[in-house]
Write a structure and sequence with these properties.
119 residues
């Protein structure tokens, strides 16, 4: 079962990467046009996760821009429950483990158990 989950995550990552590359070429107007054509909850969930992942990545990039002794250090996978359904997100990390994306914060800090499963 764990192997099936890994395959599913890998397929999702590939699909998100392909969609991201396509969106980069389209420009904002093209992206908005494509979003207006979405007619399923799965499509909305996919685009929402894609945008959220990119926003978190950019947030980390901005935060680390002026840092001399801290660098980006990969991602960890989390499922975020929302009214669109479960969103598969790739939450960016830094080497010092001090970066917390805005959507993962409660009162400006990373939530502790039992909320840890959110981020």
């Amino acid at each position: 079962m764990k192997n099936e989950n890994n395959i599913s995550k890998n397929k999702r990552k590939i699909k998100q990467k392909e969609a991201y590359e396509k969106m980069k070429q389209m420009g904002l107007e093209g992206i908005l046009n494509e979003i207006s054509k979405i007619d399923s909850q799965e499509g909305i969930s996919f685009v929402t996760a894609l945008l959220l992942n990119e926003l978190m990545k950019k947030e980390r990039e901005i935060r680390l821009r002026d840092s001399i002794d801290n660098k980006a250090n990969g991602y960890y996978e989390r499922q975020l429950a929302c009214f669109f359904g479960s969103l598969g997100t790739s939450v960016p990390e830094d080497k010092k483990e001090s970066f917390i994306p805005v959507y993962c914060q409660i009162d400006g800090r990373k939530p502790m158990s039992p909320f840890r499963s959110l981020c």
